[in-house]
Amino acid sequence: MTDVLMAILVAGFTSGALYALATVGLSLVWGSMGMLNMAHAAMLTLGGYVAFTVITSLGLPVAVGFAGAIVAGALAGAILYFAIVRNLLQNDKSTFEANVMIATVGIGIALENAILLTYGGQPLKQPVSIAGALRLGPLTLPWQNLLIIAVVVVMMVVVSAALGRTRMGRAIRATAQNRDAAQLMGVAVNRVYLQVLMLSGALAGICGVMVSSMTQLSPPLGNDPMLKAFIMCVVAGLGNLPGAIAAALGLALLESFVQYALGARWGFPSLLFVVIAVLIWRPSGLFGHAEIRRM
Distance of alpha carbon 41 from its chain centroid, rounded? Predict the structure, then answer.
C-alpha cells in the first residue's frame, strides 16, 4: 500500500510541477495584460522541438538544448507582441480581449501546422531524459521525475526573484495592479507587455521540453497542458500566480488519485467537476478577489 501511495504522490507532484510551469505563463500574461494567450500551447510545442533539433541534429549538449528552448519561446513571445498585440492595443481597448484571443488562436494553429510540415506527424523521442531511479529503502523515485521537479522549482524561484527583486518585476506588478497609474508614474507599459510575453514564452519553451521528456514529441503536444493550465488558472483566479501554483499541485494530486481509484478516463472529468463547483461557489476563483465596477 505504501508503494502505491508513493507512486501516486510522485506522479501527482510531477504532473503538478508541469502544470504549474504552464499555468504560471498563462496567469502572468492574464494578470499583467488582461489577455488570454491561446498560442501558449503552440509555443510550448515549439520549445520541445527546438530542444530536440539542437540536441539531435546539431549534436550539442542538453544544456544548450534547454537554452535553445528558452530563446525560441522568448522570441516567439516577442514576435507575437510586435506582430499582433501591439497593433491590437492601438485599437479600441474594449474589444482587445476578444480580438487578441481570436488572433492568438490563429497564430497557434499556424505555428502548430508549421511544426507539422517541418517535422511530420510521427511521434519523436525527446533526448532530454534520465534513466534509472533513486531507491530509498522501499521507495523508488525515478530520476526523470526528480529532474522535472527540480527544473520547475528552479524556474519558479527565478520567476519569483525576477518579479519581486528587479526593476522589471516592479514594473510588471505595477502594470498588473493599475495600468493607467503605472503609465502616469513613468512605467513604459508597452515595454512591460513585451517583457511579459517573452517571459511567458520562455516558460512555455522549458515546459515543452519537460512535457515531451515524459511523453513524446508531436505537433499537438501543448494542447493538453494548455487546457489543464487554463482550468487551474480559473480555479485559482485568473492572474493570481501563487494561487495558480497551489491549484496546479492540488489538482494534479487529485487527478492522480482519481485515475488510480476510478481509472484514467475519470482524471480529466474530475478536473472539470472542480471547475464547475468553483465557478458556482466562488466565481472569482479560490484565491481571487471579486472586482466591483461602477457604471
Answer: 8
